[in-house]
Amino acid sequence: MAIYLTKESKVLVQGMTGGEGMKHTRRMLAAGTNVVGGVNPRKAGRTVDFDDRAVPVFGSVADGMRATGADVTVVFVPPAFAKAAVVEAADAGIALAVVITEGIPVHDSVAFTSYAKERGTRVIGPNCPGLITPGQSNAGIIPADITKPGRIGLVSKSGTLTYQLMYELRDIGFSTCVGIGGDPVVGTTHIDCLAAFQDDPDTELIVLIGEIGGDAEERAAAYIRDHVTKPVVGYIAGFTAPEGKTMGHAGAIVSGSSGTAAAKREALESVGVGVGSTPTETARLVLDRLAVEA
């Protein structure tokens, strides 16, 4: 089992013919992802060769869905065009839109995440690495060769920390790893993934990676208290962040004691989540919890 993405998923790539789109489409195909088409209205009707696979280019998401049955789109378009790309995908009725693009204006993200939700399209991102179900499918830029299928579910604001925990726990493996993105507005939250992992019979333990800024982790802690029965282990990036300094993610905004790593750790630990001080310690906590569960 997995959440959101399986070997049955049929993937379109909006922006496939651009530099980043080409590079990562090749990587997704190498990981076994069923990429069924690209979208570029100026290059519709062409095909792009990726080693031994010729991938057609469609003029719109709707055309691609009609021709292939696609149910996922991965968005590799410049920030100025991201809103239009997601709105197009939502209008076509696609189930999942994975928005890799960073630097999207917040008001655009507010608009397209709300629009997509109203039309039943789940958005992951923006400014995210995407998601991977190891051994089945990879939608985005997550390296596919650093872990294996297993029983841990992972949800993370940080792409880099997603990769590190995947590698540290590679001997156990993962059901699905979801990078939700670090912007102030994202389409899929920690809570959404916690609910999905709670319902996934093959996920035995959940790893939650957060970072300073906002209150997403505090809200996740309240949800865990009320709804999650599986063990959860967490890590919060930013314990050593100096006061008054801007962090890399747009969502890492701290006001007074609100949004600090210490406050988030306290909230999570108060509901039984083990929180590591480093990624390596977090991985060790996972191993300890799984040993107890076994």
UniProtKB/TrEMBL annotation:
Its EC number is 6.2.1.5. Pathway: Carbohydrate metabolism; tricarboxylic acid cycle; succinate from succinyl-CoA (ligase route): step 1/1. It catalyses: succinate + ATP + CoA = succinyl-CoA + ADP + phosphate; GTP + succinate + CoA = succinyl-CoA + GDP + phosphate. It is an enzyme of class 6 (ligase). One of its GO terms (biological process) is tricarboxylic acid cycle. Signal peptide: none annotated. The active site is at H249 (tele-phosphohistidine intermediate). This is Succinate--CoA ligase [ADP-forming] subunit alpha.
